[in-house]
Amino acid sequence: MPGDTRFHVQVSPDSPAPVRYAASELRRCLMRMTGERVRISFPERLPLEESGSILVGERQHFSDLLARKCPADELDDEIFVTQRDGNCIVTGSNPRSVLFATYDLLENLGARWIAPGYMGEVLPESDCLGLFEQEISERASYRHRGICIEGAPSLEHALSVIDWMGKRKMNTFFLQFKTSIYFWRNYYSREYNKSYGTPQEIDEKRSLEMDNEVIEAAKLRGMVVQRVGHGWTAESIGFRGLGWWQAEREPDEGTRQLLAQVGGGSSSGISPSTLSCATPTQRPLMEWSTRRSAMRGPTAR
Question: Which CATH number is 3-139 given?
Answer without folding.
Answer: 3.30.379.10
